[in-house]
């Protein structure tokens, strides 16, 4: 770019190129986000392939917003603003085009494509693979060369606050970016999490915030034609931002095994950050207030900026409150946080960027802009954002409340569904706003071809003596001190916790603990990471009563030594998996992975059919690897005999069993359909795809009669050796209702005379002969399930004193066997022999074996609604 | 350690504020970039008035208005 005769002119072609790229990035990233949102309530939407799974689209959504949209918008604004701020040209136009192509083709398009192809890293705000991260770091360096040199030449004492923010944003992002991308691969588990926390916050704090604030400080005086209220306080805000923001990072991991002193520090720093924002926002709003009164209403770009400033205050105060540990224990991991992040990324950052782009576009020669479309986009975005934030905040409060109430996890998923549907509606509004915003840049009046010129530098007014060396030195020293301070914050919140954690790990690791993963488990971990599982399932049980009750012993630092990178997560849509090892059998995990609705009817988890060969029972090596990895989660603690049984039972099954059986089965049916029908089938005959894919296959509740005691025990404790889990998280009333419903389902009528192949006594004798010939090795001579080979099998062979088969149920089991159990198929037995042996087995049934227990004096607290 | 860091930050910023409050020259110099920026935008400022009375000014006028 050549200097204009009377100063410098912005690089129009580069501004236009980055602006167009920003539009494309915004719309595509929003589409990714909308697809992700729809998948919450319609998990079958865009499913079936690896590239369109929830996790990968979610990665592309956030990375797209960060780099494709905001990155391009900020760079476009830099090209426009830098000549005004420095009165000098950028370093090189050619360098500008190199940055443009590297940023957009290699980093953004390359990153998106690689993520969709399954190459990514499960690190928040750093999901693009390391190769792309290296390109982005290179671009940041080139951007410093491009813009930093003119700023440097300008001199510290002359630099307007927007320049400081732009310079600071580029410099500190360049320093912070490797922290979140590289170190978690080198440092394990908790140690890596400390650094991840730094970058999660720095991505917002040292990249987005300074560049968005720079736009506000630029646009306000440019529109109002008045100086800002106080340049001094703008600089105070600037320094507080860079000095305090990096100290916030660990507030994403409070109540974790990171050193408590670091957690408290991040909490204090977060509150301090709120004070800084109050200073900045007050200064900005006073600057607008001092100008002509209708400037916000008249100038739509300024209106965007004004909204951004107001929401900056709101989101920052909200963030400070969220970091307070007492509040955090309630809302963390819920949609409240997602509402907060959308408020920050759209309400603050995107509104600022849109205001900045619209402002510069109206001043660019030879382009069109449409004021009416811009106004429409503003209102669409304001309404869409308000609805989305209210919706997600409400969803977060509901989820937090349900989690505290010790209800089954799936209840929070069910309760969230309407909120998630509404979010998709809000998302459509926002997308429409983005599209209309883009349209406003291509329609409407054509700007005159005259070029914008930066006014010739000075002459200074007599009152403005050249700034002395002292003020330049002070600014320069402060900037140097800021860089030094960044290093100190890195030491304080990254290195110091890491050293403390290392010491603690060495001290507390039990001897012989199996921390390293096998190659198969490592492969499973990579697949788990690339498909975004950690973005719904945390891998950290926090030191909070609710977490400990539900998931078991809190995650300790020594347990995480095998995690490269850590996948602690910051959101729980599904339950935490830190104690997953041994909780579920592999066949359940595979069926769940193939299609979660097979075994959890109301699940909204995505299916992963591409990890199978067309059937849940035909897993690929990838699926087996994932399951192998799942079984490592919590394994070290289990081996070290740390107590972690998961949710403690609030159910007294014996008491419930003693209560009269309900005749109103509607509630029980509803509970059954929500929780049990996936495996046992809607009709209880276990012929659902989920039930058939388990090993052993799910139990046929209709074809076999069980005594109530067996049903209650199975509900309370699960059935060892099968996929049947404990249902002790169910509220007492639901527990009783579903048990009664299951008891009422069984149908084992006697044979009608016309169905009998022989007189009953004959059948009995013949059946005993068949039984003695084929069955007693497992089921025992008396049919009580304790034959000589019974101990080889889990689940144990049936005890026919406690289970009564129906004729059709027994015929099916005898003919086909029970896949996954010790019961083989007996295809050579004739129908008459099967009828006979069934008749014999039925004769052994003794009915309910557990007598009713006396009613305890105190009714358990969880039995509401049952009195 | 973190408490010390936050304390040092606060102290430095307080010293800066006291400096600005005590020194008229510091007040002027700290505010100069905003006028220069306006001139870069092609907006004439009234900085040629002695002591930039109308410029620094925004703050003072505001304070007067509210007093």
Précis, in short:
The complex is a heterodimer of chains A (867) and B (67). With 867 residues, chain A is an all-alpha fold. Chain A has helices spanning 12-41, 54-86, 93-117, 130-154, 161-181, 183-186, 189-224, 231-244, 260-289, 295-298, 300-323, 325-331, 335-361, 371-404, 409-439, 469-508, 519-530, 545-551, 586-594, 596-599, 621-630, 635-639, 653-658, 666-675, 677-680, 689-693, 708-717, 732-745, 760-774, 776-779, 807-816, 831-844; strands spanning 368-369, 445-446, 704-705, 804-805.
What does this structure look like?
Chain A has 867 residues and is mainly α. Chain A contains 32 helices and four strands. Chain B is mainly alpha-helical. Chain B has helices at 2-22, 24-40, 58-66. Chain B is elongated and about 50 Å long. Residues 48-59 of chain B have low confidence and may be disordered. Classes of the chains: A mainly alpha (867), B mainly alpha (67). Chains A and B meet through helix 8, helix 9 and helix 16 of A and helix 1, helix 2 and helix 3 of B.
């Amino acid at each position: 770019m050549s200097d204009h005769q009377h100063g410098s002119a912005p690089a129009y072609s580069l501004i236009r190129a980055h602006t167009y790229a920003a539009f494309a990035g915004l719309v595509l990233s929003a589409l990714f986000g909308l697809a992700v949102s729809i998948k919450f309530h319609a998990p079958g939407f865009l499913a079936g392939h690896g590239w369109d799974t929830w996790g990968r689209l979610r990665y592309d959504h956030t990375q797209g917003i960060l780099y494709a949209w905001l990155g391009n918008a900020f760079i476009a604004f830099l090209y426009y603003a830098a000549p005004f701020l420095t009165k000098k040209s950028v370093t090189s136009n050619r360098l500008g085009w190199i940055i443009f192509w590297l940023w957009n083709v290699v980093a953004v398009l390359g990153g998106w494509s690689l993520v969709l192809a399954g190459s990514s890293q499960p690190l928040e705000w750093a999901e693009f693979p390391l190769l792309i991260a290296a390109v982005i770091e290179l671009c940041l360096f080139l951007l410093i060369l491009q813009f930093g040199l003119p700023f440097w030449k300008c001199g510290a004492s002359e630099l307007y606050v927007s320049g400081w923010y732009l310079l600071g944003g580029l410099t500190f992002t360049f320093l912070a970016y490797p922290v979140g991308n590289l170190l978690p691969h080198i440092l394990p588990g908790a140690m890596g999490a400390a650094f991840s926390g730094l970058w999660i916050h720095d991505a917002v704090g040292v990249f987005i915030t300074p560049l968005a604030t720079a736009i506000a400080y630029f646009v306000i005086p440019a529109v109002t034609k008045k100086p800002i209220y106080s340049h001094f306080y703008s600089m105070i805000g600037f320094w507080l931002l860079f000095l305090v923001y990096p100290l916030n990072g660990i507030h994403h991991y409070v109540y974790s095994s990171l050193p408590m002193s670091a957690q408290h520090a991040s909490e204090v720093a977060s509150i301090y950050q709120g004070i800084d924002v109050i200073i900045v926002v007050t200064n900005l709003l006073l600057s607008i207030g001092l100008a002509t009164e209708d400037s916000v209403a008249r100038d739509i770009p300024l209106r965007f900026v004004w909204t951004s400033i107001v929401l900056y205050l709101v989101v920052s105060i909200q963030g400070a409150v969220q970091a307070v540990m007492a509040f955090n224990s309630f809302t963390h991991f819920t949609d409240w946080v997602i509402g907060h992040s959308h408020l920050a990324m759209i309400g603050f950052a995107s509104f600022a960027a849109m205001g900045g782009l619209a402002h510069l576009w109206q001043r660019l020669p030879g382009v069109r802009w449409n004021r009416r479309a811009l106004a429409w986009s503003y209102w669409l975005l304001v309404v869409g954002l308000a609805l989305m934030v209210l919706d997600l905040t409400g969803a977060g409060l509901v989820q937090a409340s349900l989690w505290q109430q010790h209800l089954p996890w799936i209840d929070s998923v069910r309760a969230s569904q309407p909120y998630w549907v509404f979010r998709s509606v809000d998302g459509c509004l926002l997308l429409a706003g983005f599209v209309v915003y883009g349209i406003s840049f291509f329609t409407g009046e054509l700007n005159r071809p005259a070029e914008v010129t930066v006014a010739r530098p000075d002459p200074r007014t007599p009152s403005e003596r050249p700034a002395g060396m002292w003020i330049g030195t002070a600014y320069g020293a402060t900037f140097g001190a800021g860089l030094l301070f960044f290093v100190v914050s890195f030491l304080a919140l990254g290195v110091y916790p890491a050293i403390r954690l290392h010491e603690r790990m060495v001290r507390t690791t039990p001897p012989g603990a199996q921390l390293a993963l096998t190659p198969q488990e490592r492969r499973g971990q990579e697949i788990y990471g690339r498909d975004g599982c950690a973005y719904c399932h945390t891998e950290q049980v926090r030191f909070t009563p609710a977490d400990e009750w539900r998931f078991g012993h809190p995650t300790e630092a020594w347990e995480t030594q095998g995690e490269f990178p850590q996948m602690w997560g910051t959101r729980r849509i599904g339950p935490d998996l830190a104690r997953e090892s041994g909780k579920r059998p592999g066949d359940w995990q595979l069926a769940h992975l193939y299609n979660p609705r097979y075994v959890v009817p109301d699940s909204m988890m995505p299916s992963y059919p591409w990890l199978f060969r067309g059937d849940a029972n035909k897993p690929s090596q990838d699926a087996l690897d994932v399951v192998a990895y799942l079984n490592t989660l919590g394994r070290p603690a289990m081996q070290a005999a740390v107590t972690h049984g998961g949710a403690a039972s609030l159910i007294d099954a014996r008491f419930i069993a003693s209560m009269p059986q309900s005749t109103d089965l509607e509630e029980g049916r509803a509970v059954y359909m929500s929780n049990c029908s996936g495996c046992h089938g809607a009709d209880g005959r276990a012929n659902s795809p989920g039930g058939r894919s388990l090993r052993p296959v799910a139990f046929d509740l209709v074809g076999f009669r069980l005594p109530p005691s067996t049903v209650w025990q199975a509900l309370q404790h699960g059935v060892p050796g099968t996929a049947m889990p404990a249902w002790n998280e169910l509220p007492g009333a639901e527990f009783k209702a579903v048990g009664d419903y299951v008891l009422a389902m069984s149908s084992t009528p006697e044979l009608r005379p016309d169905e009998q192949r022989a007189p009953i006594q004959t059948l009995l004798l013949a059946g005993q002969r068949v039984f003695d010939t084929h069955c007693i090795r497992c089921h025992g001579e008396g049919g009580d399930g304790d034959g000589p080979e019974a101990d080889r099998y889990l689940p144990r062979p049936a005890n026919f004193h406690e289970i009564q088969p129906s004729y059709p149920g027994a015929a099916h089991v005898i003919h086909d066997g029970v896949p996954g159990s010790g019961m083989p198929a007996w295809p050579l037995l004739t129908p008459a022999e099967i009828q006979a042996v069934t008749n014999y087995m039925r004769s052994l049934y003794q009915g309910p074996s557990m007598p009713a227990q006396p009613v305890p004096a105190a009714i358990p607290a969880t039995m509401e609604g049952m009195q | 350690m973190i408490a010390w860091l936050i304390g040092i930050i606060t102290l430095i910023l307080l010293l800066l504020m006291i400096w600005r409050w005590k020194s008229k020259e510091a007040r002027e110099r700290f505010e100069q970039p905003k006028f220069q920026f306006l001139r870069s935008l092609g907006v004439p400022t009234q900085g040629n008035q002695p002591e930039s009375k109308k410029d620094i000014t925004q703050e003072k006028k505001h304070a007067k208005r509210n007093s």
